[in-house]
Amino acid sequence: MRERAGGRSRRFHSLRAKLTLVNVALLALGIVAATAVSLIGMRHYLLENVDAELTSSRTSLQRTGLTLRQIESLSELGIALDKLSPGPHSTDSGASSLPRNETVFVAVDRAGEPITVGTLRPTARQRDLASAVDDPKALATADEPHDVTVHGDPYRAVGARLADGTTVLLATSTANVQTGIHKALRLDITLGTGLLTLLAVLTMIGVSHRMRPLEDMVETASAIADGDLARRVPPHHDTALEVEQLRLALNSMLHQVETAFETRERSAAQLRRFVADASHELRTPLAAIRGYLQLYDKGMLRDPAERTRALGRVHAEADRMSRLVDELLTLARLDQGPELRLRNVDLSRLVREAADDLRVQQPDRPVQVAADGALLVRADESGLRQVLGNLLANVRTHTPQDAPVSVSLERVDGTVRLCVADEGPGLDEDDAARIFDRFFRAGGGAGSGLGLAIVQGVVSAHGGEVSVRTAPGAGVRVTVVLPGGGGPVGPAVAEGIPLGEGLPVGEGSGSGGPVGKGPGSGATTSEPVRSSRAATTGTPRSRPTDTARR
Fold first, then answer.
1. Which residue, of 124, 179, 319, 385, is most buried by count of CB atoms within 10 Å of its CB?
2. How far apart are CA 179 and CA 192, in angstroms?
3. CATH number for the domain harbouring residue 406
């Protein structure tokens, strides 16, 4: 019962009900005003006709110059004619019940008392008329008829002076005027009520139709609140401009909400996967260190060689954790907005130095470098060293030691293009699509799986792009494109921690797969190139580093 009462109250206070009530009230006010104006005009018109007849009768009476004696003679003649031919013109004592719309004629003396005309004595209505007029002489000289009440009935009366000085009074009942006005009022009320009811129904239908888009918005918002994020407000062909603008704005907002929700869910999933992978990567060396320490505590490492070997493993696992933490720290800095120490850097020199390091580490690997002369870029030197070190570390880790590798550097259309290509086993499309994912290692290979994520983060911080061309058995070709202008290309500070500080360049930062593995960068022979800024469909993608930030 309370819910039903509450529902009725809400319906009464709804916008539809308020608009309908306001429109009905305005319509009712208009009908009342129109009825009042029409009735006032009707009364004024009818009274003007009555006054015109009275004034015309008075004027005719005065122009004829009749005396009271002549009027008496005419009255006697009329009585005789009535007796000879009785009819509707009879003027006997039945005159006391004259119709209300007839004119009453009475002659009065100086005292205002009615005078007998011929053999006709004054009737009760004539006496009432004479007594109703306070000053017959003043009425005879007045220009306009006056309102008088004769035996409870309304009359309009005028006075006239005969040729012999006798004052006569002429009065016409206006009861018929009042009756007509009352009938017109009842008719107007009946018609007005019906018209108002019809207009109220039409108004309610029209308001309900116009409110339908708003109801759709409420229904859509409720559906979205229940989890249907793909729901949108449907269009209406005859919607008002303002409501259509509101619908478009609401749909745009709902699209943004859906996109933001999907992005949040995707980021949350990536963050959970990132935390799980990081925990797993840290748990492995920690378990090894704990195991060796437990063996040492229990005195099970009695052989000096075993102790030396155990301590070596502890140091190795500690170094592994240190490198992993450094890489995570670098990614965290990239997520927070890197502090780049921008200056003019000879990228050719960095390429040659990185190639020399690779030759020293793997003397049997053919290394070809195409980076003669100086090629200056405005960049953070430590960050570029880290990019080169990670790319070549992947080549060193995930390709045979005798697999050739080439490093080329050139300036193209105002940009600097760095290419690292190997002739290793390459990647399939699925692995290539995840190459820049954090902790991703193709085939469960070695490394932390963070190297190429760092490469992408550093390159993106410089305003550049990373793309990959690969196919199974065809090797991997990674292309880094950096802005070649002399001005700043990204956030720069005079002082700060360089991107690569605290992380040995090229050590332990491999992605666990051949160079160039990452989301949106994998390619086959049918679709050879993927960019680190684009998903496999070719649409822009967010930086993977956004995962840790969220």
1. 385
2. 19
3. 3.30.565.10
